[in-house]
Every structure is written in C-alpha cells, then in structure tokens.
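Problem: given the chain below (152 residues), write out its structure.
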Amino acid sequence: MEKVVFINRVAKVVKGGRRFSFTAIVVVGDGHGRVGFGMGRANEVPEAIRKGGVIARREMFKVQMNGTTISHDVVTQFKATSVLMRPASAGTGMIAGGAVRAVLEAAGVTDVLSKTYGSRNAVNVVRATIDGLRKLRDPQQVRNERLALARA
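Solution.
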C-alpha cells in the first residue's frame, strides 16, 4: 500500500527566472505491521513520487502491534511537532488526522487514538509518527528485561 502524504513545489531562482521542482512524501506499508516513509525530489511529480516510494520501501520496519492496535501509549517529538498515540479497544476505529492516519493505515493499525500538538507540518508529523512506531516495544519483552535486572 503506497500513500502520497504531501507534495510540495519548490522554486530555485536562476538567471533566467525560477526553476521549479517537486518534493513528495510517500508512506509505504503492507497493512500487516510493516511501514516506511521516503521523501523523493525531482523535476516532475510522478518521478518524485516514484523516488519517494523506492526510499520508503528501503526504509521499512516492523511495528510492534497488539492485535489491531499498538502495544502501549507513546509520545514522540520531532522538532516543533509532538504526536501522542494510544492503544484503543477493538471496534474503536482510527481516531487520527492527516499524516498520522496515512502512516497508521499503511502499517495496518486499525484501532488507535492519536493527537498532534504543535506544528502540523506534514514532514515533521510523519517523522514523529514513524519515531513513535519505532519506539513501541513488546510488553512481555520489557517484563523479562526488568525481571533480569531485578535478579542481577
């Protein structure tokens, strides 16, 4: 599943006028717990999207999920953007907006509550969401690590 989150037109001023190019933020996921994102830049929109997709596929990682939701609360910050994600009971659905929704849908998370604070810049929101998904850990693994520390 490939989703284009945002396309930005940028201009470089040269002697003969302005030269335009495009940046595309692309999120790729398999809908079963793997997700990645990439930023592609090119002189044409389709080429920027293609490049972003290639980078996103290369950067894919496994998300720690608990059924159809995430395993625990997570708050992440990237620059001026903060993203809060909370697990939700089955049937709640996805309560998330914009870029957060695109990332979570691509990952296959269907029940989650989220809130974005601060800057709503699409690039920063996607990066904060991806960082949050990378921080998720398996509760059983955390329990075993804590028990090992307590015994030591």
